Amino acid sequence: MEATVVRTGTEGKTWGGGNEPLKASYGKMMMWFFIVSDALTFSGFLAAYGFSRFKFIDSWPIADEVFNHFPFLHGVDAPMYYVALMTFILIFSSVTMVLAVDAGHQLKKGKVTFYMFLTIIGGLIFLGSQAWEWKNFISGTYGAVYTEGGNILQFIDTEGERVSLEEIAVPSESVRVEHQARNGVWFESEKSLPSYALEEVIAGFAANPNLLIKTEMLSEDGEKIILSREASLAKLTADAEGVIEGANLTRNEYGPPLFADFFFFITGFHGFHVLSGVIINIIIFFNVILGTYERRKNYEMVEKVGLYWHFVDLVWVFVFTFFYLV
Amino acid sequence: MAHDTAHHHESNTKRIWTVFIILSIVTLVEVVLGILKPEFLTDTAFLTMSLLNWIFIILTIYKAYYIAWAFMHLEGETKGLRRAIVWTAIFLISYLIFILLTEGGYIYEVYKNGYVAWDF
């Protein structure tokens, strides 16, 4: 690296060049500048999320009721555990990254290789976990009915347990069939219809006296308001407009559409950062194996990619708090 | 860089593992509180937000501090670089949060009490 430093012959003078008041190399400082601007981007997104949440403060979904899946525990209500696991995976991969940087300072190639490898594995596991989280979010568990005003009506039994559309709906012959490209004039298919039509759900709801409606509105003590049997029936027949299963960008079975939009956008943007972090880590990993930094006698590249990787972890800490805890 | 290779770096492994344990414990506390949701914390409000949420946010900033200082090694940088990074972010983000959350609360009030029909 010494060879690339320009000598001006006036090093002793303050403005003579070659003076580094911040004692950080060019590359490291630029990585910090990038991180600060990226941090501002993420805070813009999270603050916008906060804005929408304050706007719909009395109808925002309760995270524990939305994110309650855990692998191999089907149908078990497991709020938070999975996302806590994801957080641990990311923090641990941050630890292996900083251990790699530490080993780099001592020019221990073998150790750097090993810790970089663990970091990449951690990143990949995190990405896989996020994909699984998205899959559960998109396909949904119970399904719901939306009203003309865009509100969500969920179904529960008298014990307060959620009931899925599958258990409620009474299949009927007269329901419209999904239009497909092969039977239309313009060879265009429509968006896939939900598994049950609204009429089937209403018929099933009317037939089963144990069912109640849980609205998306929050009561004073922060729980979703549940309607009485009569009010439920009246609400369902008067206001229901369609059936929604899972989540898309227009509607979701959890609450206001913005909730799903922000979930997709912020965790997606973060996941994209993790993905690019893993790719950069892999590039640096191969450079370490090839001995590029060994020949340079300097592992600063590992340190720089490490900064980026820790930043991704830092952002996740905030996403975790604002999507799952608060 | 000359100053990197000139003197021998000592290992910070012990510090790294200590920070990892701190971060893990804080995360565990957050998760446990998030599952239990103690009533005296959710029912007590401070500046329009429940105490539990304040605890979550403070613990998050505590974690962010350790990640930035220990893992991103801000503690070893010069004061100038550290301040340029930390204060820039803190000032801009506080402003952004203040203005957007205030506005969000205002729009909520308009929807609720104003003459705007939105739930048909």
Structure write-up:
The complex is a heterodimer of chains A (326) and B (120). Chain A is an alpha+beta fold. Chain A has helices at residues 26-55, 63-66, 81-105, 109-139, 165-168, 198-207, 229-239, 257-290, 292-296, 300-325; strands spanning 144-147, 152-157, 211-218, 224-226, 240-244. Chain A has 2 domains: 39-140 and 259-325, Four Helix Bundle (Hemerythrin (Met), subunit A) (Up-down Bundle), CATH 1.20.120; 144-245, no CATH class. Chain A contains 10 helices and 5 strands, in the order ααααββααββαβααα. Chain A has a 5-stranded antiparallel beta sheet with strand order 4-3-2-1-5. In chain A, strand 3 (211-218) and strand 4 form a beta hairpin. The longest helix of chain A has 34 residues, at 257-290. In chain B, 75% of the residues lie in helices and 3% in strands. In chain B, strands 1-2 form a two-stranded antiparallel sheet. Chain B has 120 residues and is mainly alpha-helical. Chain B has 2 domains: 1-76; 78-120. Chain B has helices at 2-6, 13-36, 39-43, 51-71, 79-113, and strands at 45-46, 49-50. Residues 1-7 of chain B have low confidence and may be disordered. Chain B has 5 helices and 2 strands. The chains are: A alpha+beta (326), B mainly alpha (120). Chains A and B meet through helix 1, helix 3 and helix 10 of A and helix 1, helix 2, helix 4 and helix 5 of B.
Characteristic key phrases:
heterodimer; A: about 325 residues; alpha+beta; Four Helix Bundle (Hemerythrin (Met), subunit A); 2 domains; five-stranded antiparallel beta sheet; about 55% helix; elongated; B: about 120 residues; mainly alpha; two-stranded antiparallel sheet; flat
